[in-house]
């Protein structure tokens, strides 16, 4: 499994080096497309492992730093709080170039895993980014009713959209 992740991440970084400018230019158009095509109502079925999802979030602990508009790669529901809390990798906790690399990596990983992704699949990846608090737990009831779910062909451009809105404490 470790070699699969290394290979996928290496391919992602190479791809992004070549395509980053084009992806960033396409981001604004993709944002418009996402808003038109993907205005989904919130359902628990939306938050499936591997899905790239954007939503507004009202954190419980407002004194702590949080992203009001997270863009996450969903990792599924918590076993401790089934159907009330879910995990996601919030791409906004890393810089723009890394976001696109990570989105590319996950596309590669999803393809290798036949579209099925679990926390255990990304655990080695998280060690590489341990200084960034990307792995987040979200309370379902604090997610806005409008949720944007991206098709896999939108992942890279969506990752390049600067939609984060920081609230609470210092970064």
Descriptive report:
With 171 residues, the protein is α+β, with helices and mostly antiparallel strands. It has one domain (2-163). The chain is built from 4 helices and 8 strands; from the N terminus they run αβββββααββαβ. The chain has helices at residues 2-37, 96-112, 119-128, 155-159, and strands spanning 40-41, 52-57, 66-67, 71-77, 85-90, 135-139, 143-150, 166-167. Strands 1-7-2-4-5-6 form a 6-stranded antiparallel β-sheet. A two-stranded antiparallel ribbon has the order 3-8. α1 crosses α2 (96-112). It starts with a helix and ends with a strand. The mean pLDDT is 82.
User: Largest sheet at a glance?
Assistant: 6 strands, antiparallel
Q: Report how far the terminal alpha carbons are from each other.
A: 33 Å
The helicity comes to 25-40%
Q: Major sheet: order of its strands?
A: 1-7-2-4-5-6
Spans of at least 5 consecutive residues whose pLDDT stays below 50 are none
Total number of distinct structural domains = 1
Number of helices: 4
Beta-strand proportion: 15-25%
Number of strands: 8
Which structural class matches the secondary elements? Answer: alpha+beta
Shape: globular
Mean pLDDT rating: 82
Question: Which series of helices and strands comes N to C?
Answer: HEEEEEHHEEHE
Radius of gyration: 15 Å
